[in-house]
Design goal:
heterodimer, A: 130 residues, alpha+beta, two-stranded parallel ribbon, 5 strands, 38% helix, 19% strand, globular, B: 44 residues, two-stranded antiparallel sheet, 4 strands
Chain lengths: 130, 44
């Protein structure tokens, strides 16, 4: 998301990332890797589970698609740091309006899956056109 | 296990911690404007 933050912010959205960790982990991630995001930490997976996110099955962690995505990330120079959190927790992305209503939701199919930036921008633009 | 959210559902709010150790309620964020909320597997 950090790579596309300029396009996303142009739509007027606030960008917020949530993961498991402590303030020092947020400082490392948001301070250097994703400085344009508001990063928030949860102690365990309570917020993730509250949004209906689940732990990945074995097939959602180890698959050809996951391997391919990992190789693609490496080829772009993306190197992960130490893993803080729950690497088996599947990710999810939501757009929430001012009234707290979900207007877009994406549940990752496996640990390498993310929504397309085009889908996010299209969903985000609905807010600016209202 | 909580069910997946659908479009039109009310988003649950949680009290989380920012990088300075301050507590932040999610609903305070979206009250300021539409919010893209992404749950990462981990910071790193």
């Amino acid at each position: 998301m950090e790579r596309h933050q300029a396009e996303l912010k142009q739509t007027g959205l606030q960008l917020v990332a949530v993961a498991i960790g402590e303030p020092k982990h947020i400082k490392r991630y948001c301070g250097s890797l994703a400085p344009s995001l508001t990063c928030l930490a949860q102690n365990e997976t309570e917020a993730s589970r509250g949004y209906g996110l689940k732990q990945a099955t074995f097939d959602q962690v180890v698959s050809f698609d996951v391997l391919k995505a990992g190789m693609r990330a490496l080829s772009k120079g993306t190197v992960g740091g130490p893993v803080i959190g729950d690497p088996r927790m599947l990710s999810g992305t939501f757009i929430i309006d001012r009234n707290g209503v979900v207007t877009y939701g994406y549940y990752s199919r496996d640990v390498s899956d993310h929504p397309s930036i085009e889908a996010l921008i299209t969903a985000a633009l609905q807010h600016t056109q209202e | 296990m909580t069910a997946q959210l659908n479009i039109g559902d009310q988003a649950p709010t949680f009290l989380l911690t920012d990088q300075n150790g301050n507590q932040v309620e999610l609903e305070q964020l979206w009250a300021n404007g539409p919010t893209l909320l992404t749950f990462l597997r981990h910071f790193g």
